[in-house]
Design brief:
By secondary structure, this protein is mainly alpha-helical. It has seven helices and two strands, in the order αααββαααα. Helix content is 54%, strand content 5%. The mean pLDDT is 89.
Amino acid sequence: MKISTKGRYGLRILLDLATHQNKGPVNLGDISKRQGISEKYLWQVINLAKSAGLINSARGPKGGYSVARPNDQISVLEIISALEGPIILVDCLDKSENCERNATCVTREVWAKIEASMKKTMAGITLQDLVENQEAKASGQSFNYTI
């Protein structure tokens, strides 16, 4: 499985919003400058995140975007799944009926364990964890994700 730019940039966008929304909705142009992502591409990713209920938008002169829920209630798994689709390592885990070896395949069990581990890790890291890690890095401290 490979996370596309949509997933990688989406995680950065939500982290940017979580970090900068304390003064109100964040302008798309400001995110673009800070993250080095074109506004056109940002808009596409933000719309996906907005449709998934991860981001709110506000119109008007002081409008912009903000994270829809508290940072500690949004996991990396939720963000990546919303932007990339379901996390499925191999097809036989999603559509086991399509595999004639399903009942006896030992390697399927390996893929299932790896997939479950990936999901558990991503579910165990919240947007708040990322904000705290970013703040720690900015102050020269180190941060350790504990799962």
